Amino acid sequence: MTRRLLSTLSLVLIMATAQATARMNEPWDEPRPSGVQRPEVSDSFGSAMGVSLIRLYQRTASRVDTDRSKSYPVSSRYAIQAFEQQGFWLGMFLTADRLIREIDPSTNPHRIYENGRQYIYDPLEANVWW
């Protein structure tokens, strides 16, 4: 049991380090179309670790679990956006807040229809007030 846990943690650490290193190789001066503002991306190790954990969840447990998310974007995509834009601690806070709000969808009146299904529209930008 302990050996399996250590190997899993080592794998997650290696994935997070590889992702953080890959970002360092990107060009520093990206051309942006005029008038389009892209959110800033956090380059911290914690942010990369959070994104790696969510991607691990998407590749393993999410495939076994059914499609139950009533929100758009789905919670795992929301969590990745939160980690990338706000860093690890605020990303954790925003993800936990989103999961709590997903319990009672009647608190959010914004609805959209996509692929014949009704979703609650709850983007990250609507929840970041700072």
What do these coordinates show?
With 130 residues, this protein is mainly alpha-helical. It has one domain. Helix content is 54%, strand content 8%. The protein has 5 helices and 3 strands. The protein has helices at residues 2-24, 45-59, 61-64, 75-86, 88-103; strands spanning 71-72, 111-114, 117-121. Strands 1-3-2 form a 3-stranded mixed beta sheet, with no helix packed on it. A hairpin with a 2-residue loop joins strand 2 and strand 3. Helix 1 crosses helix 2 (45-59) and helix 2 (45-59) packs parallel to helix 5. The longest helix has 23 residues, at 2-24. It is globular. The N and C termini lie far apart (43 Å). Keywords: Signal.
Keywords:
130 residues; 3-stranded mixed sheet; 54% helix
Q: Largest beta sheet: what is the strand line-up?
A: 1-3-2
Low-confidence stretches: 21-30
Query: Can you count the beta strands?
Result: 3
**SSE run:** HHHEHHEE
Q: Tell me, briefly, the overall form.
A: globular
Portion of residues in beta strands equals: 5-15%
Structural class of the helices, strands and pairings? mainly alpha
Q: Main sheet, how many strands, which sense, barrel?
A: 3 strands, mixed
Number of helical segments?
A: 5
Number of domains: 1
**Integer-rounded radius of gyration:** 17 Å
Whole-Å distance between the termini?
43 Å
